[in-house]
Design a protein that fits this description.
Elements lengths: L15 H20 L3 E2 L5 E3 H4 L4 H6 L3 E3 L10 H5 L3 H8 E5 L4 H10 L8 E10 L11 E10 L5 H16 L4 E7 H10 L6 H8 L2 H4 L1 H10 L4 H11 L5 H12 L3 H17 L7 E4 L13 E7 L6 E8 L13 E7 H10 L13 E3 L4 H16 L4 E3 L6 H10 L4 E4 L2 H6 L2 E5 L5 E4 L1 H9 L1
Helix pairs in contact: 1-7, 1-15, 7-14, 8-14, 9-11, 13-14
Length: 454
């Protein structure tokens, strides 16, 4: 019995319909990236595990897909770990490579490795798949595309402003209403300092980052389980429950954590970014979210997260400032900032809200109907003229029944069909049928090119 074909959980095939829509997303994002002066790069699917481990926190390390060494991968395995079934430690001896978890860490490695070949500040974008051994669910996949944009080699907060403007413009083009949430890692450090628990920063931020998902009481419960005293949690309460506009939040946070060194610095950076943004007419709402942490250890400054207002799906874009990432690879004191657009979640949002343009799924603009051998020779010349005019065109390869050819055009969502029979060949006027309206009319090829190419 033949094996039923399938793909691993959390991965998907994409047919022509889906790919056309995905390319609409990629092309929209790419166009804005390049408009702001960012250049494309690509990095390998696999990275050395030493590049990846320790950059994403304990949870991130668990979600890394590890690649077994080639050949006899058990030859160098530690026999004690093997006997004890210590899979975590064993994996480091039988796996030297892993699938990339995101595009930021590989980018930092790229910058260090190619630092003599690039110009700083280096503005790059990268659109490639990443892999995480997560539990698949709505809007969350094990293989998914990220569209990253970063600038490295500059500490200016104008870079954060640039990123926020790009986020706003991209989602305007896609017609998705979003809210852009801002926080700062220094502010989070200030919060931990204000309750005399700086050593608990990771525990505090991990719990706070779950506020939207599990609610404030569950956050308190998790903080208690991590060893925070009730007195410390009581001091956190007004911070977690902070509300109001950005100005009032900044004022309240200054009172609560502004006397700490990190907190004061973080609030200054947030206030400066918001002040710069007043110079622009942004469509998206920009709001401070003091609980936002994004769970990644490498952020050191601004933290950015974007959510669709009309669909419950989690973040569709996010990122932040990182000052120390290249230092891990031997290039200290190089600051960077960037964001990542989740193409798969954006696709799901556009689908749910029915926001894809009608022609996003169609590549071919016109199909030439095949009436037979004599008409074929004439139609091939017409096909060439259409394609030379940069109009996506195709000729049905066989003189099949008209119903079959029309069904082909309909199923591929081709907007126009060109019928060239003996009468059209003699008159020089070709019959163009609009597959949406059903209207058909005779035109010269020059007129048809203008109509379809408009």
């Amino acid at each position: 019995m033949a094996q039923k074909p399938s793909v691993p959980k959390g991965t998907r095939d994409f047919g022509p319909f889906e790919m056309s829509r995905r390319n609409y997303i990629f092309n929209t994002i790419r166009g804005v990236f390049e408009k702001y002066g960012y250049q494309p790069i690509e990095t390998p699917v696999m990275e050395n595990l030493t590049t990846l481990l320790g950059k994403y926190g304990e949870e991130g390390d668990r979600l890394l897909f590890k690649v077994l060494n080639s050949g006899d991968y058990l030859a160098k395995a530690n026999s004690e770990w093997l006997e004890k079934r210590d899979s975590l430690r064993l994996s480091t001896s039988i796996c030297e490579k892993g699938l990339r978890y995101d595009l930021t860490v590989p980018f930092a490695r790229f910058v260090v490795q190619h630092r003599n070949d690039i110009t700083f500040p280096f503005k790059r974008y990268q659109m490639q798949p990443v892999w995480r051994a997560d539990r698949p669910q709505k809007g969350r996949y094990r293989e998914f595309f990220q569209c990253d944009v970063d600038v490295i080699g500059s500490v200016s907060l104008l870079n954060e402003v640039d990123l926020i403007r790009m986020i706003d413009e991209i989602f305007q083009h896609l017609k998705i209403n979003v809210v852009i949430k801002l926080n700062n890692r220094k502010l989070l450090s200030g919060i931990a300092q204000s309750i005399d628990a700086p050593e608990k920063l990771t525990d505090i931020t991990t719990a706070m980052d779950k506020l939207d998902k599990i609610g404030v009481e569950k956050v308190y419960e998790e903080l208690r389980s991590k060893g925070l005293s009730q007195d410390a949690i009581d001091h956190l309460e007004p911070i977690l429950n902070l509300s109001g506009n950005n100005t009032s939040k900044l004022n309240c946070l200054k009172e609560l954590v502004g006397d700490t060194a990190d907190g004061s610095h973080g609030l200054f950076e947030l206030g400066t970014i918001l002040q710069y943004l007043k110079s622009f007419n942004l469509k998206a709402k920009v709001e401070i979210d003091q609980s936002l942490a994004r769970g990644l250890n490498y952020y050191t400054g601004a933290i950015i997260e974007v959510k669709a207002e009309d669909v419950k799906i989690g973040s569709i874009c996010g990122g932040g400032r990182y000052d120390n990432l290249t230092g891990i690879f031997g290039l200290p004191d190089v600051s960077g900032v960037g964001v990542s657009f989740g193409a798969d979640r954006i696709y799901d949002v556009l689908t749910e809200l029915e926001l894809f343009p009608e022609d996003a799924a169609s590549l071919t603009k016109v199909l030439l109907v095949n009436f037979g051998e004599k008409e074929e020779l004439f139609s091939l010349g017409i096909l060439e003229k259409l394609q030379q005019a940069e109009i996506a065109s195709e000729f049905y390869p066989e003189p099949a029944k008209m119903k079959k050819q029309m069904k082909y055009a309909d199923q591929k969502q081709i907007p126009y069909v060109l019928l060239i029979g003996e009468e059209e060949m003699n008159s020089g006027k070709l019959t163009l049928k609009n597959m949406v309206t059903g209207e058909q009319k005779k035109w010269k090829i020059e007129e048809i090119i203008k109509i379809i190419g408009a």
